[in-house]
Specification:
The chain is an alpha/beta fold. It is built from 6 helices and 15 strands. It folds into 2 domains: about 60 residues, no CATH class; about 160 residues, 3-Layer(aba) Sandwich (Rossmann fold), CATH 3.40.50. It has a 7-stranded mixed sheet, sandwiched between helices. A 4-stranded antiparallel sheet has the order 1-2-3-4, with no helix packed on it. Strands 5-6-7-8 form a 4-stranded antiparallel sheet, with helices on one face. The longest helix is centred in the first third of the chain and has 12 residues. The mean pLDDT is about 95.
Length: about 240
C-alpha cells in the first residue's frame, strides 16, 4: 500500500502509526511497515474506531461501541459504576486490549487475564494500551476458567467480567464459573458482567438467563444496565448457603 493512501495517527517509541480508509492500522519502524494483524487459527486485527484502536477477531468486534464515542468511554463508565478506589483489588477476567484494566488501575492492584497470545502481541504494539504495563497491573496469558482456581476465597473486592459473546465462550456464562466468581469475591464485592444482546432478535433473553444463574451462585442486588449491556451486582455481606 502506498504511503499517500495512509493517514498518520501518532508517533511514539520510535514507531509511526497510520490508518487506511478502511480503518486498518499500520506501524512503521525504520524502513519497515506492517499491518497490525495476526493470523493464528483466527484472524486478530486492530481497526480504528473514532480515533481509537479496537480489536477484531475473525471480523467480529470485541468492544461495545454502540452509544459510546470510543471504547475508552465504555471502559471508563464501567470503572465509575463500580466505584473503584485505591483500596480495591480487582479481577479483570478477559483483558483484550486492556482499556478497562487501565481504567481500573486506580485500584491498589488489578489482575487481568488474556487467553489469546496474538492479542498480547497486538497489545504490545498498541500505543493506547501502553499504560497496561504498570506496577499496579498484573497480566497473565491463560484461560480464566482454569486460572481462577488458583485464587484464595474472598480475594477480590471488584470483578470485571467482560467475556466474548456466549457462542465463543459458553463456559464463562456457566453456573460452574459463576460459583468460582462467587468464591473469589470478597463479601460485598462489586461486579460487572457484560452479557450483550446476541439472540435478542430471536426472542432469547440472555441477560435473564445469566441473572438466574448468578442468583443460584449466591449473588444479589442484580441490576441490568442497558447502556453497558451488562449486569451490575454484589456478593452479599452474609455468604450464600
Amino acid at each position: 500500500m502506498k504511503k499517500r493512501e495512509l493517514k498518520r495517527l501518532i508517533e511514539t517509541g520510535g514507531a509511526a502509526y497510520f490508518s487506511d480508509p478502511e480503518g486498518n492500522i499500520y506501524v512503521e519502524k525504520g524502513k519497515k511497515r506492517h499491518i497490525l494483524s495476526i493470523f493464528d487459527e483466527h484472524l486478530y486485527k486492530l481497526r480504528l474506531f473514532n480515533g481509537i484502536p479496537i480489536l477484531e477477531i475473525d471480523g467480529l468486534r470485541m468492544h461495545l461501541v454502540k452509544d459510546f464515542k470510543t471504547p475508552l468511554d465504555y471502559s471508563r463508565e464501567i470503572a465509575e459504576k463500580l466505584g473503584i478506589g485505591r483500596r480495591d483489588i480487582v479481577l479483570d477476567t478477559c483483558m483484550g486490549l486492556g482499556y478497562t484494566a487501565i481504567e481500573a488501575s486506580k485500584a491498589k492492584k488489578v489482575v487481568t487475564f488474556e487467553i489469546n497470545g496474538p492479542v498480547l502481541k497486538l497489545v504490545e504494539w498498541n500505543p493506547w494500551s501502553k499504560k497496561l504495563f504498570s506496577r499496579r497491573i498484573e497480566i497473565t496469558l491463560g484461560d480464566i476458567a482454569e486460572e481462577i482456581k488458583q485464587f484464595d476465597d474472598n480475594s477480590f473486592s471488584v470483578i470485571i467480567h467482560d467475556p466474548p459473546r456466549f457462542s465463543r465462550a459458553p463456559l464463562l456464562y456457566s453456573l460452574k464459573f459463576y460459583q468460582e466468581l462467587y468464591r473469589v469475591a470478597k463479601p460485598q464485592a462489586r461486579i460487572f458482567h457484560y452479557v450483550g444482546s446476541v439472540g435478542k432478535g430471536k426472542g432469547r433473553k440472555i441477560a435473564e438467563e445469566v441473572e438466574k444463574r448468578l442468583k443460584r451462585a449466591g449473588f444479589a442486588n442484580i441490576i441490568y444496565n442497558k447502556r453497558l449491556q451488562g449486569l451490575l451486582f454484589r456478593k452479599p455481606a452474609v455468604p450464600h448457603r
